[in-house]
């Protein structure tokens, strides 16, 4: 009787003191895009021998991923493994993609009719090839700035704990700050802002930013360099164009004036010839006078 009571007591222990969570391993893992991710759920003995896996992204609702139990074939990139004692249920994700990032939870019932017990969660971070960019304002805006704002943007990072470093080449900096966000695919984007004095740009100094993604990868941005030239008057094209038009008008005026002068001289010459002919004609028409001598007729 005592043994029966003791056995019943141990059978009721899970009901009286329910297990809070199933331990999962590993707690966090970074996997390169295209790699394989495995997460283990240590359930102990299960009457149903079935474990459900879920994924959560950015505090959203749980999304069902896969069922793991013995003798279930893989579904695409997702499959499962169960150890010989049926106490560890493993979720396997092959050819990991960016959107596989998130926190994975296992869930199972110890026996039929009992509530689900969830795992404590395992975080998957995907690491693809990150990119780094150095952003600057347009040149037209820089001409009127006393300080030039620069931003170093790192996208596709696997962690937000990366540190951005600036290589300023003796530039005078005013302030800088860091900011970071996580994208829908689980990758991180980081930004570091910097302000430099525009007066230092007169020497054409170069500026780059860099980030150490891991022990062997060091990303460096394209350099930013700007040399401030003396301001050029915007009206020079108008001045040159106006001068050319004035010269053209002067040439045309000179040609027209010469042509009019030639015509005028030609007209005067013709008039003089006509006047001279008229004078000669008038001269020919003058009355000629002769002296006549008269004698007296003797017969009268």
Question: Could you explain the architecture of this structure?
Answer:
This protein is α+β, with helices and mostly antiparallel strands and 300 residues long. Among the domains are: 108 residues, Immunoglobulin-like, CATH 2.60.40.10; 95 residues, Immunoglobulins (Immunoglobulin-like, Sandwich), CATH 2.60.40. Helix content is 23%, strand content 35%. The protein has 3 helices and 19 strands.
Please name the fourth-level CATH homologous superfamily of one domain.
Immunoglobulins
Q: Uncertain runs with pLDDT below 50, 5 residues or more? A: 3-17
- Oligomer kind: single chain
State which percent range the strand residues make up: 35-45%
Annotation field: number of helices: 3
Class from secondary-structure proportions: alpha+beta
Output the CATH topology of one domain.
Immunoglobulin-like
Overall shape: it is: elongated
What series of H and E elements makes up the topology? HEEEEEEEEEEEEHEEEEEEEH
The span between the termini is 218 Å
Mean pLDDT, all residues: 76
Helix content, binned percent = 10-25%
Global Rg: 51 Å
Sheet of most strands:
7 strands, mixed
The CATH class of one domain, by name, is Mainly Beta
Instruction: Give the second-level CATH assignment, the architecture of one domain.
Output: Sandwich
Number of strands: 19
Brief summary:
With 300 residues, the protein is of the alpha+beta class. Helix content is 23%, strand content 35%. β17 (206-212) and β18 (218-220) form a beta hairpin.
Sequence-ordered SSE layout with sheet pairings:
Elements: H1 2-16, E1 21-22, E2 24-25, E3 28-32, E4 37-42, E5 51-56, E6 63-68, E7 78-82, E8 88-93, E9 102-108, E10 117-119, E11 122-127, E12 131-135, H2 139-142, E13 147-157, E14 164-167, E15 173-182, E16 188-197, E17 206-212, E18 218-220, E19 224-225, H3 236-284
Parallel strand pairs: 1-10, 3-11
Antiparallel strand pairs: 2-4, 4-8, 5-6, 5-9, 7-8, 9-10, 9-11, 12-13, 13-16, 14-17, 15-16, 17-18, 17-19
């Amino acid at each position: 009787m005592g043994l029966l009571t003791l056995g019943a007591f141990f059978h009721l222990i899970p009901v009286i003191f329910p297990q809070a969570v199933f331990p999962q391993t590993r707690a966090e893992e970074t996997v390169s895009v295209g790699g394989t991710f495995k997460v283990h759920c240590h359930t102990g003995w299960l009457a149903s021998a079935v474990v459900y896996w879920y994924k959560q992204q950015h505090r959203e609702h749980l999304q069902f991923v896969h069922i793991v139990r013995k003798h279930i074939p893989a579904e695409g990139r997702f499959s499962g493994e169960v150890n010989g004692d049926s106490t560890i249920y493993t979720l396997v994700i092959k050819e990991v993609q960016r959107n596989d990032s998130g926190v994975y939870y296992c869930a199972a019932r110890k026996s039929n009719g009992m509530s689900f017990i969830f795992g404590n969660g395992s975080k998957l971070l995907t690491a693809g090839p990150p990119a780094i960019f150095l952003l600057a304002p347009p040149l037209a805006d820089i001409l009127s700035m006393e300080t030039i704002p620069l931003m170093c943007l790192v996208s596709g990072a696997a962690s937000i704990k990366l540190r951005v470093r600036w290589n300023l080449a003796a530039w005078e900096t005013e302030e800088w700050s860091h900011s970071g966000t996580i994208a829908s695919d689980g990758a991180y984007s980081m930004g570091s802002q910097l302000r430099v004095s525009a007066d230092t740009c007169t020497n054409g100094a170069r500026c780059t930013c860099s980030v150490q993604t891991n022990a062997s990868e060091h990303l460096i941005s394209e350099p930013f360099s700007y040399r401030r030239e003396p301001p050029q008057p915007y009206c020079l094209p108008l001045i040159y164009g106006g001068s050319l038009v004035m010269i053209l008008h002067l040439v045309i005026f000179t040609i027209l004036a010469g042509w009019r002068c030639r015509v005028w001289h030609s007209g005067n010459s013709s008039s003089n010839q006509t006047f001279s002919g008229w004078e000669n004609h008038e001269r020919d028409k003058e009355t000629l006078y002769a002296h006549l001598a008269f004698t007296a007729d003797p017969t009268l």
